[in-house]
């Protein structure tokens, strides 16, 4: 079993004469009155990958809160407390202006929200990253051209939503051998992954495309804290908006997210670091990796 290493990390290239907007623009769709910080964490992570522009589309009060947390993110304020099917057209139309769309962070599971999610993952034609409650609302057949970033609980729901039998799902979730778990996941989805990449988060992350499997061992138990997954999905969306490569973006994001956690574990001398600490160290880690090249 081979693990991702520094040599497999490839950064998007920026032309010297490039102008604003030519180095990637990300749209983040999510948030609810219960969850605000996740959007900020994901948005800042995406910006630190080097994209020119990140816009957060969220319920209006949530969007105003994001504006208060940071001046670096643009917000599109959607009327209402939660994203609902009536907002589909507005979001789909907005998505045409962006290179990659991150869907699901903090969106919740209120009445109508799951139908909203199931519809927009089908109708948005841009490259996508689907995270958190976005994963819980869909089957694998609903989405294409996407990176999905489930932890085991979200993977279980995705499998069941995709029509995989409960007995087979239980076998996957309970499997402790990482290589065997990857094999069982591929068998379950067979040819249904299409042009999607799964990042199954765990003590060893598994990255699965239709024809390849990678393993990542950066990261530590301190990263079970809320918000670290939002940083991961933001990194993936940021890289994806620049390089248009689903698998490479997933590899970059997974390795770098875990590496930041490992650096913070040493710096804080224990598990006292939080997700917002991670966004502050992204640029340091990226600079270090680029110097290795």
How would you describe this protein?
The chain has 293 residues and is of the alpha/beta class. It has one domain (20-292): UDP-N-acetylmuramoyl-L-alanine:D-glutamate ligase. Helices cover 45% and strands 14% of the residues. It contains eleven helices and nine strands. The chain has helices at 37-48, 60-69, 88-95, 113-123, 133-136, 152-161, 166-174, 178-189, 228-243, 246-268, 275-292, and strands at 25-29, 53-59, 74-78, 100-103, 127-130, 146-148, 196-200, 205-208, 213-216. A nine-stranded mixed β-sheet has the order 3-2-1-4-5-6-7-8-9, sandwiched between helices. Strand 5, helix 5 and strand 6 (146-148) form a beta-alpha-beta unit. The longest helix has 23 residues, at 246-268. The two termini are 24 Å apart. The mean pLDDT is 95.
Give structural attributes:
9 strands, 11 helices, UDP-N-acetylmuramoyl-L-alanine:D-glutamate ligase, 293 residues, single chain, alpha/beta
Low-confidence stretches: none
Number of domains: 1
Globular, elongated, flat, extended or rod-shaped: what is the shape?
globular
Strand order of the largest sheet: 3-2-1-4-5-6-7-8-9
Mean pLDDT: 95
- Percent helix range: 40-55%
Number of helices: 11
Short description:
The chain is an alpha/beta fold.
């Amino acid at each position: 079993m081979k693990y991702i290493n520094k040599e497999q990390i490839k950064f998007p290239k920026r032309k010297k004469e490039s102008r604003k907007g030519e180095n990637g623009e990300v749209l983040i769709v999510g948030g609810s009155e219960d969850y605000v910080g996740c959007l900020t964490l994901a948005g800042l992570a995406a910006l630190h990958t080097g994209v020119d522009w990140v816009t957060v589309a969220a319920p209006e009060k949530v969007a105003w809160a994001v504006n208060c947390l940071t001046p670096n993110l643009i917000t599109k304020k959607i009327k209402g407390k939660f994203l609902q099917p009536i907002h589909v057209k507005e979001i789909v139309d907005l998505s045409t202006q962006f290179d990659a769309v991150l869907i699901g962070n903090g969106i919740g599971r209120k009445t109508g929200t799951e139908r909203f999610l199931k519809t927009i993952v089908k109708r948005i034609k841009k490259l996508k990253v689907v995270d958190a409650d976005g994963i819980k609302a869909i089957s694998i057949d609903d989405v294409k051209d996407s990176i999905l970033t489930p932890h085991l609980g979200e993977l279980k729901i995705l499998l069941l939503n995709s029509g995989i039998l409960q007995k087979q799902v239980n076998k996957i979730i309970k499997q402790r051998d990482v290589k065997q778990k990857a094999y069982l996941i591929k068998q379950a989805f067979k040819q249904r992954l299409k042009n999607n990449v799964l990042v199954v988060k765990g003590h060893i992350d598994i990255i699965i495309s239709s024809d390849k499997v990678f393993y990542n061992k950066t990261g530590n138990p301190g990263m079970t804290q809320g918000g670290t997954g939002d940083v991961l999905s933001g990194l993936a969306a940021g890289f994806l908006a620049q390089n248009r490569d689903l698998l490479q973006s997933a590899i970059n994001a997974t390795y770098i997210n875990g590496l930041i956690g490992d650096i913070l574990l040493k710096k804080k001398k224990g598990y006292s670091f939080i997700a917002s600490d991670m966004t502050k160290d992204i640029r340091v880690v990226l600079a270090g990796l680029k110097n290795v090249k």
